[in-house]
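Backbones bend. To wit:
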Amino acid sequence: MNKKLIILLLCLNITNILAQDQYEQVSIDKVVAAIDGNGQVSLKFTLSVPSNTLVANDVLMLTPILIAKDGSEQHALSPIYACGRVSDLSFRRKRAFSKNTNDTCFFVRNKDELVYSSTLAYQPWMQTATLVIRSRLRNCCKMRELPIRELYTCSFAGESPLEKRHAVITPEQPTVALSITERLAQTEEFVETIENYIPRQKIVVGEQEKAQIVFFKWDKAEIDCDYLDNEKVLQHVIDVTRQIHNDPEAEIVHVVLLGLSSPEGHYDYNVKLAASRSKAMKQYILSHISLPDSCFKLVNGGEGWDELRYLVEGSEMSGKEEILQIIDKVPILKGRELRLMKLDRGVPYRYMREHFFPKLRRAGYIKVYYRKREIEKYRVN
């Protein structure tokens, strides 16, 4: 292997380690877990974000999770959003204009400290459960998962809220069962609570890897169910969306649809084609489920240059470094595609046209954001 390439890979690896260490500076201490006589478990800890831990566009999503000793049960608690300067302003604007009064998220910024507290109904499996924190970092260009950190192991032995006290039997507290939509949100990547929605937030390329994607043939904006895996994807999207729509305990707030086109051809035409593809996906959903037109958020991604760069960077194709340099430094309207077509007699361009461009012709990153309805009722599991 070329020595320069080895050095480059080593530098990238060191950079990733340093970046991971940077975000692990977010400290969590003073963890306290207790249970009261009413069958409520209270969890409390202090979270600190040192200065300069987060850059301007960073959003570090921290989710505390209680996990049973054998891993058979788990319960996710209210998330914490640690934000850089720009992301913090975006979250503040969103919350200021939000109509949702049940915002149970926690927000913290650089140089700040947060006292986190949460309560939940006790269940027997929690007696020796472990409290962990799941960390996901989102910035302007990608999403990545950070290592899970173990915080605390509960020990409620001898403190069960179901014991007899003074010859009076304390009734078992009813547990709040998850609604249909909440269960779907745990298994479906494209279903999220409205608290995670950020208006006009750039859709990062890394998140699209797990998205539901409908592909289009070259120069087409009509949905073809027989093309690639479209039929399977469409059936799944409609089935899940219909379940949420019919759930009496939830309502669909936004359906986000991203339209893209490949870079080949005239730029203005490709932008219109990308818009037509997101509209086609919207009409397909509306033909199966009656939703308000206002809940759809169509995002015109135009020519999928960011997505192309992501595919090239993760490949072993020839001319990779030169391609990335052209994409990064040559403006779209200043001959970027032409430069790629001329590179190495057009060999890399033809490779991308065959292997990568078909993946860019799509209406993808389908996201369904829901809100819990304010229904005061409990159901016993």
Remarks:
- The chain has two domains: 26-171, 206-315+356-371.
